[in-house]
Write a structure and sequence with these properties.
With 115 residues, the protein is of the alpha+beta class. 20% of the residues lie in helices and 57% in strands.
Length: 115
């Protein structure tokens, strides 16, 4: 049991020493994206049996707009975006592309909003 504790502590220490990538730069640019779908789910309540009692769980409304850029699909959430673009499926609009550069010179990009 003592060996197992030592091994677990060693693994935790090694994991904490491993460095994470750090963000070096973040840029935003406007690009054309195509709206592929809009999704809405009304707020609802589910009931789960816990012991001999039912517990209610309230789920909030979901608002999503799906867009495609450069062959990849992105999801933008929020009621404001959904209300503005729910009738625009199939249309091309301006989106905000966020490009993040890390210290290991790798990059990632994401569509973060619509104009």
């Amino acid at each position: 049991m003592k060996k197992l504790a030592i091994i677990l502590i060693s693994v935790m220490v090694l994991c904490s020493l491993v460095g994470c990538r750090k963000v070096v730069d973040t840029q935003e640019k406007e690009v054309e994206v195509e709206i592929t779908d809009a999704y809405y789910r009304a707020p609802h309540t589910t009931y789960n049996m816990v012991g001999k009692t039912y517990m209610s769980q309230v789920h909030p409304a979901e608002y999503r707009v799906y867009v495609e850029y450069d062959g990849a699909e992105y999801t933008i959430s929020g009621q404001d975006v959904y209300e503005a673009y729910k009738e625009s499926v199939g249309e091309t609009v301006l989106g905000v592309l966020e490009i993040t550069t890390y210290d290991d010179e790798s990059t990632s990009s994401d569509i973060v909003n619509l104009k």
